[in-house]
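Q: My hope is that you can spare some time for a protein that puzzles me. Underneath my words sits a plain record pairing an amino acid chain with its backbone structure tokens. Those tokens are not coordinates but codes from a learned vocabulary of shapes. Thank you; the sequence and its tokens follow:
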Amino acid sequence: MKRVLTLSLLAVMACSNPSTDPVLPKDFYECEEALHKGDTRIAREIIENGKAHAKDSDNYYDYVVLDAKYYFYTMQADSFLLTHQKIQQYVDRHSAHHRPKLKMLQVECEVQQGVYEAKMTGRMDSALTHNLHALELLQITPHQPHYRLMVLSNIADVYKQMGQYDKSVSYYRQAMELGDSTNMDDATRFSLYTAIASAYAAMGSFDQSETWWKQAEPLKPLMERTELFHYLNNRGNDYYLQERYKESLQCFLELDSLMAGDPNLQWERMYGWANMSDLYIKLRQEERARELLAQTEPFFTQQKQLIPLFYLTTQRIELAILNHNLTEARRLVGENPIPEWMIPEQKQLRRKQLLNLYEQTAQWQHYGETLREYTQMKDSLASNNIKMRFAEVLTHYQHEHQLLAKQKQLEAKDLSYRWALALLVVAIAFIFMLVRFIIQKQREQKLREANIRGSMAQLHMEAVRNRITPHFISNVLTAEMMAQMEGREVHLDNLVHLLHRGIELTDVEQTTLSDELEFIQFYCSIESRSIGSDFQLHTNLASDIDANRVILPSMFVQILVENAIKHGLKARKPEPGLQRSIWVNVSTKDDATLVEVIDNGIGLNEANTRKEHTGLRIIRQTIRLLNEQNLRSRNKNKHTATLMDFGLANYTQADGQTGCRSWLLLPHQFEYSLKKIRG
């Protein structure tokens, strides 16, 4: 789940710098610094004094720009719009002139309008358009790197709000490269570290986000309260996305303590309260949540802040559902539909509550439509995540390849020089040293390539696992549609629970045998309606098996059971006195757990052995990836153990029944998650 995310600190204030911007008066920077620190009284004095003593119109409008920033910082939206309009009209009247000051005023207009659209109205498409135009204008003013850095950060932040995290990270990295080349200050670096970390967190790459949080951590003592607000808000959001709600709440409590007592930071404090009320709901402290909602809703209503208000309404809906007040929940949903322009993370939060409401009120048509929208956006974010990570691995590989090529060129020159010297001393000694040198370099190169292959293998496994969900849902929905067409009863309640559980299992790499067997029992209860009353499932666990402690890749046994039903039992016609059955037997074999799925269906024949079905192909590919990673880890540690295995063949039981037997061998000493394996 994702939450409201603020714009980065860079987006609030133009990063003017007296060393690179000689056209601005000195007190311009003093005013910006005062606004940055929250000292609005000093900022107001500088603005009024500057207007009174302005030398010309251009100089006067320097202070009008500061006026707009002042109104933005103090959240006076109407005054901001009037002042911004005044600047825009001045620029339009003098558009024929090509003075540097007018060009920068035009950039300021685009930046201000973009920030206003993003933070106050939530119209991200419009915010992106204004910032991209500002970036184009800055192409012809290359002496303004700090403005360019600010605009790159704004664009990255808008893409993050729109859910396009791959583009967001790309623009943040451009801003980081530009900042490194211009010796950016610690506050700017801290803000960029925080922004990049939050982008990775939003897409679920928490290992990447943790790397950037660690880089930001040493700079915390040097930061003002405004930078710390963004750090704590986004750090709390990271924990929230990992469902570490208590740690998230600690971040927002620290943020609240930081903002308390400063009237200039009232918006930031209210924003923190909006997030805290959500956390109190998740922690079932509903009274505290209601207290915060009662204070934040009037504030954001007065400020006309549509995104926070939408977020608070979602919390009201969740509270109503938790208290079984479904009438109130339906009223809130009806009066507060999801607007098209709303940011993706807020749409997903609302849709999750809608799914809960529609399930409890049996509104299955609405449920199906909402589930489709929720799944589409979730799949889109997952796809962008994988594409971005592939691009990062490829970029890293290309960078390593370039370094290696340059290194080889240098080494070739060095070797030629050494060869000439060595021939003068002793040819044999030189050849011996050369051979050792080449072997060492080959080993280093193979290690680099192995690390890159490991990264790509991990991404490939994610792509393979993401194919399970549509395959499974398609089979189940087909069965229910056939039941409806044949006039049999359709159990939507059970189907919804089954789909929920299926999505949960495919969202994780591994699960326990207990959860897998529970899911299979539920799945077979639905499939039995399409097979017939003569279908039975038998589950047999050996006495030494603890199903809660046996770990395996999620949905593996389910795929074997589904394959047995679809290609074995359904193909066999009912026979009087014969039960069509599946036996799931679990036993211990040496240092592994053996899971067998046996059916008394038609068995394998020449037609169905030539083609491997989707589910079995997924199992085979996943086992190969896991075994490769485990072998690499064990070779490194000089440790040998059983590898994971899988098989499928015809089978004759002791009582003479024939059918098919598939099996999984699950080693006890084995890592079933690629993320935990280091090559």
